[in-house]
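Let us practice reading a record.
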Amino acid sequence: MSAIRIVRGEYRGNKIHNTEFMLVSGFQTGARGSYVTVQNSGHFPKCPDTIRIRVDNIQDIQYTSGMTETVTPTIPAPVSQAESDEQAMDRIRERFDILHEMTKATVSGDIRAMIVSGPPGVGKSFGVEQEIDKATMFDKLAGKRLRAEVVKGSATPIGLYQTLYKYSDANCVVVFDDCDSILLDDVALNLLKGALDSGKKRKISWLSESSSLRREGIPDSFEFKGSAIFITNLKFDKMKSQKLRDHLDALQSRCHYLDLTLDTMRDKILRIRQIARDGVLFADYDFEECVQDEIIDFMNTNQNRLREMSLRMAIKIADLRKMSVMNWKRLAETTCMKSA
């Protein structure tokens, strides 16, 4: 049996760096990305004896023993139905088209609640915020109270209650973006369940004494008739905590759940390439297509060293390319990459 070193990998959310295992089955690529199968040997207590460790590519593994110079690791040849880059970009584009369509339906009130899940920096919020801006355009021009709002960051339970009341009318929409702290508070979570419920009548209550609610004239219960979108970086089916999983399952059952399926590093890179090809990503830079490809190829080559793989990172590197044609790669290595 061969020994193998995982240079970079992941198992059930646990990062693995330069760790040796006994190999069971070599590098393979499946529907959820690439992996190797190894013996656990006590590395992860209470887990199976044989585990699959996810890796981004074959450079993330090294064979350390049991292989001779005349033997090379077996890498399965791509099967005919393997997804090409173009097919993957079409799949990703379709998911974001669905997000756009579902957001419009939520703004119009045809859909009352939606959860959007996907990794940070891939443009989840962008399309949603565009629709919210359209929905509030005439409100802004007329100086009226806006019928929609995007709430970002941490939210306390009472703050959540106040926001839901503010946008409780039938034509209102509230978007919670990167408010994952709500999921960790039982009171806030129950309020969110009430807002996202698919029942005909969604009654939300605040049973504790609150001077701030009295001061603002907010009742201790009301019917939420508006629409809500919850945007999160969490993948609901990957959570370790059974208690949290139960809560998330309850949320999923109450509303539409859209997973953008950007599960691998390859998907993220292709998403960046797709946005660039659509003429959106580098629209403000007046770059020729070859320059855009050069930036994305640089990100692909250095995918394991960049601090993150995201649209934001592509913009950062584009800024450096615009600033210094000759020295941008060195600048990117210094400012955008993790220390060796």
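A brief commentary: The chain has ten helices and twelve strands.
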